[in-house]
Amino acid sequence: MIRLHDLRHTHATLLLADGVPVDGVAERLGHARATVTLTVHRHVHPGPGREAADFFAAPLEG
């Protein structure tokens, strides 16, 4: 059984995965702060670790 709350999480996850800024997603969800959205949906957002890895890999890839 899918609950309405599950659809809310799916909605936020799809928005973040598509590159919608966290602030925009937080506003749609009614979160007072974007940190709430990031805490709940951190599995979708690559964060600074991904950016650092990409930066490091770029020169190695030629």
TrEMBL record:
Keywords: DNA recombination. It comes from the Bacteria. GO terms for biological process: DNA integration; DNA recombination. The keyword Metal-binding does not apply. Residues 2-44 form the Tyr recombinase domain. InterPro entries: DNA_brk_join_enz, Integrase-like_cat_sf, Integrase_catalytic. This is Phage integrase family protein.
